TrEMBL record:
SMART domains per UniProt: GRAM, TBC
Job description of the protein: May act as a GTPase-activating protein for Rab family protein(s).
Keyword Transmembrane helix listed: no
Gene Ontology biological process: system process
Keyword Manganese: no
Keywords: GTPase activation, Repeat
Molecular function per GO: GTPase activator activity
Name of the protein described by the UniProt record: TBC1 domain family member 8
Gene designation: TBC1D8
Rab-GAP TBC domain mapped to chain residues: 522-709
InterPro entries assigned to the protein according to its UniProt record, in alphabetical order: EF-hand-dom_pair (IPR011992), GRAM (IPR004182), PH-like_dom_sf (IPR011993), Rab-GAP-TBC_dom (IPR000195), Rab-GAP_TBC_sf (IPR035969), TBC1D8_PH-GRAM1 (IPR036009), TBC1D8_PH-GRAM2 (IPR036016)
SUPFAM superfamilies assigned to the protein according to its UniProt record, in alphabetical order: EF-hand (SSF47473), Ypt/Rab-GAP domain of gyp1p (SSF47923)
C-alpha cells in the first residue's frame, strides 16, 4: 500500500533492511529475518526484535524508498524505517508480500522513473513524487470507501444501537453514522454521530456518564465547517439556543456533505413545501438512503453547472478526453450523461464545456481501440459535426446505455411529430399544433389544451403570434445617424462569424474562455436572441415541443382570475419608455406570454418583475422563443425566485452578502451591517439590472447572465460596489448609500450600442445636480470577470445550501414574531413564555410530519396563508400538548378534558386549531380570575364541547361522597354555622329576580348529565392536591346544594309553585333519600341537541351563575382556583419530554449518571 511520504533519519548502523532492487531514484528493500528461514544470526536477531513488538505495530516486510542522488533527503515510499548513516529517507510504500511491493515498483518504473530525469532541482523531484503518491493514496482511499460503503452487517448493528438508544418510531430511518467527538465546552466527548431523516443524534458513554443529544434538522440555523484553537477542522451545528461542535471524523468532507444534504432536504420539505419539489427518489422520507442523498448532490451540481431542466437525471460520470479541433489536441475532462443530454466539462475550469442534446445526435459509435486512441467513441450530430471521446472506462456498457436513451428520445420525438400531423388539419392558422394544456414545469404531457371557450366558440384564430422580435419593428426608426454604433456592430458580427466557424454555431458548440470574452463585449443586436436561446438551451425545449405555446395561449387567454388581473395591472408598467410597449402589438404579446406561463406553471403563476424580464425577451426573440426563454429563467437559471416569498432571490442576496465580506473586506468592515447593501441588491437579482440600468447597458448584463448564469450577476454586483467603495464608506446613512449606487447605475452607458438612448423608467432619479462620471458597461463587465470571476458553480451551490437554511429559518422567525405580535395583546402570558409555547406548538406539528404516515400533516403548513394560520394542529396533537402544559391534570380524565377543550376551540369545525386558540385557553387556566376559570370549565361541559355521543367518564372515586340528604347545617372552625336552607332560599329568590330582569342568558343552562360530568372533572382536578380532603369536603357540600337547587327548580317549573314553597320541598327532600345522584351514571336525563338547544320545560337544570355563587361560598375552593400558577416550569418540562408521547417514554426517565442534551 502507498504511504504518506515521511522523512526518517537513520542514526544507527544496524542493518535492519536488505536492498533487493535499486534504480536511480528508488530502492526496494526486504526486512532482515523475513524469508531467511531464521538461519543467520542477524536475521534471528531482527526477527526476535519484531516478535516482541505489539502485533499492531510490527514492521511490514517490504518497503520502497525514494532516494535523490546527491541529496541527504530520501523518501521511503513503502515503509518508514531507518537505513544507514545519518541520511534522511522518504517512505512511500509498504507491502506484506513480494507480489504487492513488486506491483508498486513496476508502477514507479513505468510512470515516474523516466519523468524524474527532466528535473534539474533535487527538491522538485521530492515535491513531484510526494504529490503523485498523495494522489494515489486519495484514489486508493476513495475506491476502498466505495467498496466498503455501508457494510450491511455493520450498518445493521449500528441501526440496532440507534433504535435502542433513542427509541424513535420505526419511521425515523437511519441514513448513516460516524465516529467523532462532540465538544462540551473545552472537553471532547468521544461517541457516535447518527444522521437520520429528521434528526442529528449523538451518543456517548464515558466514565459512567451517558450523553445523548437530539437536534431536529428543522431547527438547525447554521451548518458550517470551522476551526478553533483545539481542532483545525470542525463541523459546527447552530440551533436557536446552542452551538455544537463535532470533530475527529475519519472523512469529514463526506460527513459534512451528508449533513448538508439532510438539512437542506428536510428544511425544504417541511418549511418550503409551497413550491419545493423533491427528486422522485426522495419523495418518501422513509425510503431515503445515503446513496440517494449523494446522487441528489451530484444531480443538483450537474443541472446547475450545465443549466439543464429539473427532470434531467444524471446517470454516468466518466473520466475521458475530448478532441478539441481549435486546440488540435485532446482535452482532459469528464463526460456527464443524463436522460436527454451528453455533456463534457474540462478539468481545467472554464477551458472547454460542451452540451449535446440527444435529440441532436444522429449516431453513437465505437471506434477501433489503438494505443494513441484508447477506448474511443464518436458522437455524430445533425449539424454534420462529430465529437471524439477517448480513454472511456467501461466503454461498451456506456455506449449501450447511450444508444438506449437515444432510442427513447427519438421515439418521443416521433410521438410529437405524429401528433403534429394528426392536428394540422384542425389548425388552419398555425403550422405547429402538437401540444398540451397547462402542465407542471418539466413534465410536459401529451394532452391537447381545450381550444373552445365556455360558449363553445372556437378561439383558435383569435390570436396571431409575433413572428419576429419586436426590435425589428420598433428599433429602426431611431437608428438614423448612429453610424459609429452600426460599424461597431458589424465588427462584432464579424468576430462572432469567425468564432462560429472554429467553435460551432449550434447548441453543441465548444464553450471556451474565448466565447466568454466575446459575450462580455456585448452580443450584436442581430444575434442576441438566437444566442440567448443557445446559451440557455431554450432552443431544445422549443424544438422538442412544437405548438405547445400556441395551445397554452388558446387555453389561457380570455380567462379571468386574480393572476390575470395582476398581469393586466402590470402590462403598461413594463418598459413604458420603449415604443414597442407603447403599442398594442407589444402589449398583446407580453400579455400572451405571461398568461401562458401562468397557465403552464400555476405554482409560480405571475410575480412582479417577470413583466420587465419578459418585455426585454420579446424585444430580441420571437414570441414563442421568448416564452421558452422565460421558462428557462424561471425554472432552471433562477430557481425559487418567482414565488410570493422569493426564497431563491433572498438566498442569493444572502450569498452576495457573504461574497462582500470575502471579496471587499474593507467595505464590509466599514459597513458593519451589510443588510442595506443586500436589500438594495434584491432588485438586481430579480430583474437582472433591467430595472435600474439604462436598457442599452442592461441587455449586456443579460448577455452575460445567459452564458454564465447567476455567477455573472454576483461578480457584476461586486464590481459595482468596489467602484463605489470610497463613497459608500463615507456615506452617513442608508439613504445616502442608496443614492450613491442609484446615481452610479443610472450613468452606466453603452457607447457602442446602435440603439438610441432609452431612459430607464424604473431607475432612481435624484435632484442632485452634481456631475456624475459615466461608466462604460463593457469596462464594468470586464472588471467583474477579471477581479471577481474566480468563483465556480460548485462553490456558489454550496453557499446557496448554507444560506438557504438561514433564509428559511429567518422566514420562520418572522412568522413567529408576527403571530406573537397578534396574540400578546389578548393574553396575560409573559412574552418569553408565549414564545416557548409557540415553539412547542410548532414542534408538535413537525413531530406529526416526521412520523405520521397515515395523514398528510405537511399540508397543514401553508406558507402562503396568513401568519397566524400557517401552523395548525389536530385533536391528537392538541391532547399531547394539553398533557404537557395544562395545569388542570385530571389523571385518566385528562384526555377527555383535552378533547372537550379542542372541540370548544374549534369554532369553524375544521378539526384543526391555530396557536391563538391554545394560547387563549392556557391564559384562562393560568392567569384568569376565578369566574373566568369556572366559566371555561362550564363551557367544557355543555355543547359543543360535550357531545351526546361522548361516553360518560367513570368516576375517579370508588365511593360517592355526596348526597342530597347531607345535613344542611355545617359547623365551621370558628364555631359559626351556616344555614344552607336559608342560603339556598336566598339564591333561588335571586334567580327568580334575574329571570325578570334578564330575558337572555349568556350561557345555556346545564342539564343533569352535564352537571354530573362537571362534578367528575372537579373531583379529578383535586386529586393529589395538598388540600385534597378539604377540597373534597367543600365540593361535596357545594354539589349537594346545587343538586337540590336543580331539583327544586325543576319542581317549581313543573308545578308552577312560588319560591316561598321551595324551602319546604327542599327540607322534605333532604330527609327522604340517602341516594347519591352525583356519580350515578345511570341517571336518566332528557337528550339535548348538540348545538345547545334549550332544555324542555320541567327538566333538571342549573345555571352558571348558581354554580359560581355556590363555589364562592367555600374558601378552600376559592383558594384552589385563585392560587397563582407558574407556566414556565411546565414549559421547561415539556421541552424535555415532548418526544416522549411518540417514543414510548424517551426522555422522561433519567438516572443520576445520565445526562441528556437537547437544543430545544
Amino acid at each position: 500500500m502507498w504511504l504518506k511520504p515521511e522523512e526518517v533519519l537513520l542514526k544507527n548502523a544496524l542493518k535492519l533492511w536488505v536492498t533487493q532492487k535499486s534504480s536511480g531514484y528508488f530502492v526496494l528493500q526486504r526486512r532482515r529475518g523475513h524469508g531467511d528461514g531464521g538461519g543467520r544470526f542477524t536475521g534471528r536477531l531482527v526477527g526476535a526484535l519484531d516478535a516482541v513488538l505489539d502485533s499492531n505495530a510490527r514492521v511490514a516486510p517490504f518497503r520502497i524508498l525514494l532516494q535523490v542522488p546527491g541529496s541527504q533527503v530520501y523518501s521511503a515510499i513503502a515503509c518508514g524505517e531507518l537505513l544507514n548513516g545519518s541520511e534522511v529517507y522518504w517512505a512511500i510504500a509498504i507491502g506484506a508480500t513480494a507480489e504487492e511491493i513488486n506491483q508498486h515498483w513496476e508502477w514507479l518504473e513505468q510512470n515516474l522513473l523516466h519523468t524524474l530525469s527532466v528535473f534539474d532541482n533535487k527538491e522538485d523531484i521530492v515535491s513531484f513524487v510526494k504529490g503523485k503518491v498523495k494522489a494515489l493514496i486519495a484514489e486508493e482511499t476513495s475506491s476502498k470507501l466505495a467498496e466498503q460503503e455501508e457494510d450491511p452487517e455493520k450498518f445493521r448493528e449500528a441501526l440496532v444501537k440507534f433504535e435502542s438508544r433513542f427509541n424513535f418510531p420505526e419511521a425515523e430511518k437511519l441514513i448513516t453514522y460516524y465516529s467523532c467527538c462532540c465538544w462540551k465546552g473545552k472537553v471532547p466527548r468521544q461517541g457516535w454521530l447518527y444522521l437520520s431523516i429528521n434528526h442529528l443524534c449523538f451518543y456517548s458513554f464515558f466514565l459512567g456518564k451517558e450523553l445523548k443529544l437530539i437536534i431536529p434538522w428543522v431547527e438547525v440555523q447554521k451548518l458550517e465547517r470551522t476551526s478553533n484553537v483545539f481542532m483545525t477542522d470542525t463541523v459546527r451545528v447552530t440551533t436557536p439556543n446552542k452551538e455544537r461542535d463535532f470533530s475527529t471524523f475519519l472523512n469529514i468532507a463526506e460527513a459534512f456533505r451528508i449533513m448538508e444534504q439532510l438539512a437542506d432536504v428536510t428544511l425544504r420539505r417541511l418549511l418550503d413545501n409551497e413550491i419545493f419539489e423533491l427528486d422522485p427518489g426522495l419523495q418518501d422520507p422513509t425510503q431515503i438512503t445515503k446513496r440517494d442523498l449523494e446522487a441528489r448532490a451530484q444531480n443538483e451540481f450537474f443541472r446547475a453547472f450545465f443549466r439543464l431542466p429539473r427532470k434531467e437525471k444524471l446517470h454516468e460520470v466518466v473520466d475521458c478526453s475530448l478532441w478539441t479541433p481549435f486546440s488540435r489536441c485532446h482535452t482532459v475532462g469528464r463526460m456527464y450523461t443524463s436522460d436527454s443530454y451528453i455533456c463534457f466539462a474540462s478539468k481545467e475550469n472554464g477551458s472547454c464545456n460542451v452540451i449535446i442534446p440527444l435529440r441532436e445526435v444522429i449516431s453513437i459509435e465505437k471506434m477501433e481501440d489503438t494505443s494513441l486512441l484508447p477506448n474511443p467513441i464518436i458522437v455524430s450530430i445533425r449539424s454534420k459535426t462529430a465529437f471524439q471521446f477517448i480513454e472511456l472506462k467501461e466503454r461498451d456498457a456506456l455506449v449501450e446505455n447511450l444508444l438506449q436513451r437515444l432510442k427513447e428520445v427519438n421515439s418521443s420525438n416521433s410521438v410529437h411529430c405524429n401528433n403534429l400531423q394528426s392536428k394540422n388539419q384542425n389548425t388552419p392558422v398555425f403550422t405547429s399544433t402538437c401540444v398540451l394544456g397547462g402542465c407542471e414545469p418539466g413534465s410536459l404531457g401529451m394532452e391537447a389544451a381545450q381550444s373552445k371557450d365556455g360558449s363553445g366558440c372556437n378561439k383558435e384564430s383569435s390570436y396571431l403570434l409575433n413572428a419576429e422580435a419586436l426590435r425589428s419593428d420598433f428599433h429602426q426608426s431611431g437608428m438614423a445617424g448612429l453610424d459609429f454604433g452600426k460599424s461597431r456592430e458589424q465588427i462584432k458580427e464579424s468576430l462572432w462569424d469567425d468564432h462560429f466557424v472554429e467553435y460551432g454555431r449550434t447548441v453543441c458548440m465548444f464553450r471556451t474562455e474565448k466565447i466568454r470574452k466575446l459575450v462580455a463585449m456585448g452580443i450584436p443586436e442581430s444575434l442576441r436572441g438566437k444566442l440567448w436561446l443557445l446559451f440557455s438551451d431554450a432552443v431544445t425545449d422549443l424544438a422538442s415541443h412544437p405548438g405547445y405555446y400556441v395551445h397554452l395561449v388558446e387555453a389561457s387567454m380570455g380567462k379571468c382570475c386574480m393572476v390575470t388581473e395582476e398581469i393586466e395591472r402590470d402590462l403598461h408598467r413594463s418598459l413604458p419608455e420603449h415604443p414597442a410597449f407603447q403599442s398594442e402589438t407589444g402589449i398583446a404579446a407580453l400579455r400572451r406570454v405571461l398568461t401562458a406561463y401562468a397557465h403552464r406553471n400555476p405554482k409560480i403563476g405571475y410575480c412582479q418583475s417577470m413583466n420587465i424580464l419578459t418585455s426585454v425577451l420579446l424585444l430580441y426573440a420571437k414570441e414563442e422563443e421568448a416564452f421558452w426563454l422565460l421558462v428557462a429563467v424561471c425554472e432552471r437559471m433562477l430557481p425559487d425566485y418567482f414565488n410570493h416569498r422569493v426564497i431563491g432571490a433572498q438566498v442569493d442576496q444572502s450569498v452576495f452578502e457573504e461574497l462582500i465580506k470575502e471579496q471587499l473586506p474593507e467595505l464590509a468592515e466599514h459597513m458593519k451591517d451589510l443588510t442595506t447593501l443586500a436589500s438594495i441588491s434584491l432588485s438586481w437579482f430579480l430583474t437582472l439590472f433591467l430595472s435600474i440600468m439604462p436598457l442599452e447597458s442592461a441587455v449586456n448584463v443579460v448577455d452575460c447572465f445567459f452564458y454564465d448564469g447567476i455567477k455573472a450577476i454576483f461578480q457584476l454586483g461586486l464590481a459595482i460596489l468596489e467602484a463605489n467603495a470610497v463613497d459608500l464608506c463615507n456615506s452617513k446613512d442608508d439613504g445616502q448609500a442608496l443614492m450613491i449606487l442609484s446615481r452610479f447605475l443610472e450613468h452606466v452607458k453603452n457607447e457602442e450600442s446602435p440603439l438610441p438612448p432609452i431612459g430607464n423608467h424604473h431607475a432612481f432619479f435624484s435632484d442632485d445636480q452634481e456631475a456624475t462620471p459615466v461608466t462604460e458597461i463593457a469596462n464594468l463587465i470586464h472588471d467583474s470577470y477579471e477581479k471577481f470571476g474566480d468563483h465556480s458553480v460548485e462553490q456558489i451551490e454550496h453557499m446557496r445550501y448554507k444560506h438557504r437554511i438561514r433564509v428559511l429559518q429567518s422566514h420562520e422567525d418572522t412568522t413567529k414574531q408576527n403571530v406573537l405580535r397578534v396574540v400578546i395583546p389578548d393574553v396575560s402570558i409573559l412574552p418569553e413564555d408565549l414564545e416557548e409555547l409557540y415553539d412547542l406548538f410548532k414542534r408538535e406539528h413537525l413531530i406529526r410530519c416526521y412520523w405520521d404516515t397515515a395523514g398528510p400533516a405537511t399540508e397543514r403548513h401553508d406558507p402562503s396563508r396568513p401568519y397566524a394560520e400557517q401552523y395548525r394542529i389536530d385533536a391528537q396533537q392538541f391532547t399531547n400538548l394539553y398533557k404537557l402544559v395544562s395545569p388542570w391534570t385530571c389523571g385518566e380524565h385528562t384526555d377527555i378534558l383535552a378533547e372537550r377543550t379542542f372541540r370548544l376551540l374549534d369554532e369553524n369545525m375544521d378539526h384543526l386549531i391555530e396557536f391563538k386558540g391554545l394560547a387563549s385557553c392556557l391564559d384562562v387556566m393560568y392567569n384568569g380570575e376565578m369566574n373566568e376559570k369556572i366559566k371555561f370549565l362550564y363551557k367544557l361541559h355543555i355543547p359543543p364541547a360535550l357531545t351526546e355521543d361522548e361516553r360518560d367518564s367513570q368516576s375517579p372515586l370508588k365511593n360517592p361522597l355526596l348526597s342530597t340528604s347531607r345535613p344542611l347545617v355545617i359547623g365551621k372552625s370558628n364555631g359559626d354555622a351556616v344555614d344552607y336552607q336559608k342560603q339556598l332560599k336566598q339564591m333561588l329568590k335571586d334567580l327568580a329576580k334575574e329571570k325578570d330582569t334578564k330575558t337572555e342568558k349568556e350561557l345555556p343552562k346545564m342539564s343533569q348529565r352535564e352537571f354530573i360530568q362537571f362534578c367528575k372533572t372537579l373531583y379529578s382536578m383535586f386529586h393529589e392536591d395538598p388540600e385534597e380532603n378539604d377540597l373534597y369536603q367543600a365540593i361535596a357540600t357545594v354539589t349537594t346544594l346545587l343538586l337540590q337547587i336543580g331539583e327544586v327548580g325543576q319542581r317549581s317549573i313543573s308545578l308552577g309553585s312560588g319560591s316561598d314553597e321551595f324551602s319546604e320541598d327542599l327540607q322534605a327532600q333532604a330527609s327522604a333519600s340517602d341516594h347519591d345522584a352525583v356519580f350515578n351514571d345511570t341517571v336518566k336525563t332528557p337528550h339535548r341537541d348538540s348545538q345547545s338547544s334549550p332544555v324542555t320545560e320541567g327538566d333538571w337544570t342549573v345555571s352558571f351563575e348558581h354554580i359560581l355563587a355556590s363555589l364562592l361560598t367555600e374558601q378552600s375552593l376559592v383558594n384552589f382556583f385563585e392560587k397563582p400558577l407558574e407556566l414556565k416550569p411546565k414549559l421547561e418540562n415539556a421541552k424535555l419530554n415532548q418526544y416522549s408521547l411518540k417514543t414510548n417514554g424517551m426522555g422522561c426517565q433519567s438516572r443520576s449518571e445520565h445526562t441528556k442534551l437537547n437544543t430545544q
